[in-house]
Amino acid sequence: MTNDEILQIFFVECEEALGAAEAGLMSCRSGTADAETVNAIFRSVHSIKGGAGAFGFTALQAFTHGFETLLSLVREGSIALDDGLNDLLLRAFDTLADHVGAIRGQGDTPKDDALILELAAACDGMPVASADHAPDGPASAAGGEIDFDLDLDLLIGTIEDTHDVEPWLVRLRPLAGALANGGEPLLLLRELERIGGTVRAVETLTTPDLDHFDADCAFLAWRFDVPGDVERAAIEEIFDFVGDDCELLIERGNGLPAPALPVATTVAEPQAVAAAVPDAQAAATPHGAVKVVEPSARAEEKSAATSGGQSIRIDLVKLDRLIDTVGELIIAQAMMAQRLAASGLGSIDELTLLDGLTRDIQEGAMAIRAQPIQSVFSRVPRILRELETATGKRVRLEMSGESTELDKTVLERLGEPLTHLIRNAVDHGIEPADVRVAGGKEPEGVLRLSAEQRSGRILIKVIDDGRGIDRARVLEKAIEKGLVAPDASLADEEIDNLIFAPGFSTATAVSNISGRGVGMDVVRQNVKDLGGRISIESRPGKGSTFTLALPLTLAISDGMIVTVGDQTLVVPLTHVVESLRPQPHEVQGLGVGRQMLNVRGQFIPILPLEQAAGADGAVNSPCEGVLIIVDTESSGQAALQVDAICDQRQFVIKSLQTHYRSVPGISGATIMGDGRVALIVDVDGLVADAVRCVEAPRRAA
Amino acid sequence: MSHPTKILTVDDSASMRALLLHALQAQGFEVVQAEDGIEALEWLAANDADIVITDINMPRLDGFGLIERLRSIARHRDRPILVLTTESSDEKKARARQAGATGWIVKPFDPEKLATAVRRVAH
Fold first, then answer.
1. Quick one: how many helices (H) and strands (E) in chain B?
2. How far is B72 from chain A (nearest CA, A)?
3. What was the pLDDT predicted at A379?
4. Which of A39, A101, A125, A244 could form a disulfide with A141 if both were Cys (CB 3.0 to 4.6 A apart)?
């Protein structure tokens, strides 16, 4: 496992921790938090801090430290959770999320100086936990070690002064506690040897006779000579774990290195002088009777890691290559099916089997790319909080279908339009509390976010219970901007859809929330780029519903294979409403060369595909061919005139731009079963173009 | 004893587990991992480790709780247990020692320090 992979694990973990912390903080705010909630928040922040330290993200680490300290006080009950504190914690959380974003290369490191001070201020004035909770015994230990530190400081001076370094004299006497908790002083002695120490003497004075010997107690004391060039801290380090369970004295030898003269060097330790027994030296060296084998440094044995293993990380490039290949497989399979059908073998069992398997593989490959929409939805609470702060409105969020899975690319590009819709809903849709109360509504607005899979598409809805679209004002604005004729009579839905028109904005004053230079037309474009559609449903006074219909995947689509003259074209199935062969009386002429189709009383333009495809020999009259009624976001319905419908199958989209150049009216190409290339009709573009051609002269007139 | 020292690491953080695994394996230790105290206890009920390294803050059963439970089992009374702590304060160390830990590893650790700490307690 490389460091980068571990880092990636940390990032994923951060996301999880942030999610958990946010959920906890939200329930704190709504007053449903219990001790475990606070504990979970603390753990989340703590875990981010731990990783931040391990990976050297100092800014993140520094910030989490203050945050964690405050949380630990809350956890211990030293600080009560009130609205002010909840607010501070949430703001700290948002900054934490920004910090995490920054280390992942998404955005800059946030300025957190003020917030850190605020967190510290919140901690202050409260009993500081660390001092109060220290157990009695260790308090004295702490004092002892502080003395060591002082010694150390003094010694640093001495070391610098004297070039001729004297050896260290180390006296240690493990106490009974040094053997407790799985401690083993022998290992410490051996470590002293490893840094160059040699045993000078063993004190056996306190060793009881065998009758009173307790194997769990320690009785011996050792004196070691350690070379003077070893740092004092390195010696102290060895005894880090035993602390006050081991008497330890470290001092510079006074220039008398001969081990035979312990008396002279240990004036400070009269008891030790008396106890020095040179004979015991050999027997008491750490490599004495007890045989303890060094931890072997062989790495050949693979670890049997028991945990994790539930998921693996795959390089996205590899995955895309797989999906690409699956696309090719589908094409190859289709080609073979066609070939077999031509030889009269179209219905053999093997082909049916292969067909099923291919489909399974495709679905499997798609599922790998699919991720729960949770990752996008989880950002919403924060957006809402910011909006609440900015607008002063209170909004309750209801989410459902977070586990609905979407293609990763779709997900990544969904965030922006969704954010915009939510901003709009809060800014324009939901009314201020007083207006709501006056209108007989709850003061708190409701924003509902849902995702579900329905008939091969993902439907995402953003529903607010606000004032709905102000149609009179939308129409007025549209007329003012010249988007519609002043005398036009538009249906309610048509007026609603005007908000998607380029350059349209109803906000009288451009607020800093919705009015960020991005209109709803951009939202619609974003959704369209994803192969999706957006629709709106609004009831005055009751609220609006925006529905995004998105494809499950971008790579493979279902399409209708049609012929136009000598060309074969693909019409994406997502646009197709119905297809029919019209009766002559259903087709009406309109001006020169234009025809309209009467569908159950509604007239829609007929667009022959012949021109767009550059085909020759297509049928001339709609009544001789077939009309495919398609639905578009921008221009409503239209009827595409083709010669015949051949088939309906999945196709893999190949970009024309990368292989050829962009062609108006054509969104890409695909390879057919027989190996020929077929162009994919850009239904939206084509219809919008045609409608403009029709309407432009009409408006001018 | 020719087998490599077997270490059970207990940490709820996947990245910390990965770091421990990486560092300890590189030093030739055999590593087994658990995600929290309960999982560690369950594993130790049926298996044995030479050393346990545990995080303190964990869901279900935290590090101190784990040590307490282990120390009450005769088989684990003398088991070297190191705790992972983010602070090197004396108070934290005293707390760990009082809880029954053999020693501690201050996070962030470097692989050398980790190995030294492990060898210092490896019986």
1. 5, 5
2. 11
3. 82
4. A244
Distance CA A564, CA A645 (A): 9
One-letter amino acid of A246: C
Which ranges of A512-573 would DSSP assign to H, the alpha helix? 520-529
Residue A289 pLDDT greater than 80, yes or no: no
Mutation pick from A181, A190, A245 vs chain B, by most beta carbons of B within 10 Å, is A181
Q: Looking at the domain assignment, is residue B1 inside a domain?
A: no
Cβ contact, residue pair A187, B35, below 8 Å = no
Tell me whether residue B31 is in a domain.
yes
- Residue B86 in contact with partner chain A when CB distance is under 8 A: yes
Q: Which domain holds residue B82?
A: 6-121
CA dist list (Å): A232 to A155, A259, A502, A597? 9, 20, 74, 95
Residue to mutate among B5, B15, B71, with most A CBs inside 10 A, is B15
Q: Is B73 on the interface with A (CB under 8 A)?
A: no
How close does chain A come to B28, measured CA to CA in Å? 4
> Per residue in A364-395, pLDDT tens?
887 888 888 888 888 888 888 888 888 888 88
Looking at the partner chain, which of A1, A51, A181 has a beta carbon nearest the beta carbon of B22? A1
Q: Give contacts of B14 with chain A, Cβ < 8 Å.
A: 9-10, 12-13, 308
As for the ipTM of the complex, it is: 0.76
* Cross-strand bridge partners of residue A602: A599
For A459, the token pair is 């439907």
Section B63-84 average pLDDT: 86
Which of A119-128, A335-344, B68-77 bottoms out in mean pLDDT, i.e. has the lowest? A119-128
- How many domains are there within chain B? 1
Confidence class of residue A461 from pLDDT cuts 50, 70 and 90?
very high
More confident residue, A395 or A614: A395
Chain A CB contacts of B122 under 8 Å are: 187, 295
How far, in Å, are A29, A560, A619, A670, B91 from residue A679 at the CA level? 55, 12, 19, 6, 73
**Are A303 and B102 in contact (CB < 8 Å)?**
no
**Beta strands at A533-539 and A644-652: parallel, antiparallel or unpaired:** unpaired
Residue A653: the pLDDT is: 75
| Tokens standing for residue A522 | 């951009």
d(CA A186, CA A285): 9
User: Nearest chain B Cα to A298, which residue?
Assistant: B28
State the CATH number of the domain containing residue B64: 3.40.50.2300
How many angstroms away from the CA of A312 is the closest CA of chain B? 13
Q: Do A50 and B35 touch (CB under 8 A)?
A: no
The closest alpha carbon to A527, from A459, A577, A594, belongs to: A459
Q: Quick one: pLDDT at residue A302?
A: 36
Nearest CA distance, B2 vs chain A (angstrom): 7
Which stretch of DSSP H or E encloses residue B66?
helix B63-71
Q: What is the CA radius of gyration of chain A?
A: 39
Q: Are strands B103-106 and B81-85 parallel, antiparallel or unpaired?
A: parallel
Q: Is residue B69 part of a domain?
A: yes
> How many A-B residue pairs are in contact by the CB < 8 A criterion?
174
- In this structure, is residue B11 part of a structural domain? yes
Can you tell me whether residue A229 is helix, strand or coil?
Answer: coil
Do B108 and B13 contact (CB within 8 A), yes or no? no
Q: What is the H or E stretch that residue A5 is in?
A: helix A3-29
